[in-house]
Structure prediction request, 505 residues.
Amino acid sequence: MRVYRFSGFLFALGGAFLCLGINVSAQQGINSASVSRSRAISKSNPQTSGATSSRKVSSRNTGSTNTNYYEPTVSFKAPDEVAVEEFVNYHKHRLPLPKVGQAVALDTRWGNNEISPLQREAVLQIGFTTAEVSERTDLRPLNLALVIDKSGSMADSDKMSRVKESLRTLVGKLRPDDIVSIVVFDTDAEVLFPASRIGDGYELRKAIDCIEPDGSTNIHAGLMLGYAEAQKNFLKGATNRVILLTDGIANVGVVDPGKIASASSEFNGQGLDLSTIGVGLDLNNDLLRTLAKSGRGLYHFISDNQDIEKVFVNEVQSLISSVAKKVEVSIETDANLQVEKIYGYAPKTRANGVSINLDNMNNGLTQVVMIRFHARNPLKSSSFVKVRLSYFDVKRQRTVEEVQEVKLLPSEQKNVNLLADTEVKKNYTIAELAQSLFDMTESARRQNYRQAENFLNASVAETYRRFPNMEDADIKFILNIIEGYRRDLKAVNRQTKNNDCAKCN
Prediction:
């Protein structure tokens, strides 16, 4: 198995657990696997390092001798998925925090609240934030089952020894009354540390020392045993969660992803949540995302050191700080306004608008939904968009609903700046970059590499037009991923052009 720059993970993972309950400044609480995997796959493309290969196409008679003609092979790896909303929410947003007694703050703003009769376009940002937790005593009781892959591949790059080091660090940051169990799996699964209060953590650390990699990958057996341990001490009003960490694909026991997901969802229905953490590119990305989605948890992916602090700060804090469940946001418009595009998510059409189901929200979260509107006719008077947020407040055990209405005013100018608000401008730019990566991926899968490159060229050019000095680190981070694929596509298209010319000659 190849693991890309995993040495960064080895050092930083242990330190990231130190952030439990004391450092949430970088926390978003949003899935991040799509971003990290896209970046890792770009690095694995052969064009990045200038690697090329060739194949024999034909023999040509040059007059005195026959000459073999060799054509360079075209190789390009597109991302296996591009979740646009994860790119938009990869960084921390600058949004108002909740007021005292409020679990989630809603912030709705236009890029520009004026719309011109010529453009008839407008951009809306819907933002959400939750409060941060600074003291462990403020957190809910924890019943946690750690399900750790200890198959043979976990010995690569010294992964297992560093995972053990990280688990020891985690033990030191949990509370004596927190309930923890450890299940390990390879060909089979076993309970390494039965579910119990950790006390001073001595016995738990001894158990961690015994983990050694060997065997195949029986994800189903490990997961089922982890659920069983968490179920023993199920606590109403507490965080009851399983974390699955794996670097592979199920290859023994129940290997059908559908059956694994179905068995997992039964436990989710009983109130046991699940988060998943993938390591390395050779794993079942779809299965891990499906498991986390059904389990009301997050799916993260470890590519290199840049992912580590974000992933583990986010996920460790979210283990014990869920604040809102069954989150839904609906967007209602008047008859003249129509939703032209929502960047990411899976909206459902409803009367006079759309609705979106969002993942559960944890402490320290910032999240935005970016929407582009189009006016059917030039505005003669103000138009409106009504945003309704509904969620179940975990602490207060009741459903909360908040409504905000924002007006769009007609402008006398033929052209207005759609992105006058700096935060909307930034997040909308990232959304368009991510959308171009999504479109690129679809074209690349059809082997239309020129069209794929054109999608990226257009979004990169527009980004530099808006940000000519490119000083924003969050935009640069996403732009670097885009530039990596653009460079690779240029190489592929250059090879194809040279091959076509060689055939003509």
Observations:
- The two ends are 42 Å apart (CA to CA).
- Residues 7-32+140-320 form a domain with the Rossmann fold fold (CATH 3.40.50.410).
- The first helix runs from residue 7 to 17.
- The chain has 13 helices and 19 strands.
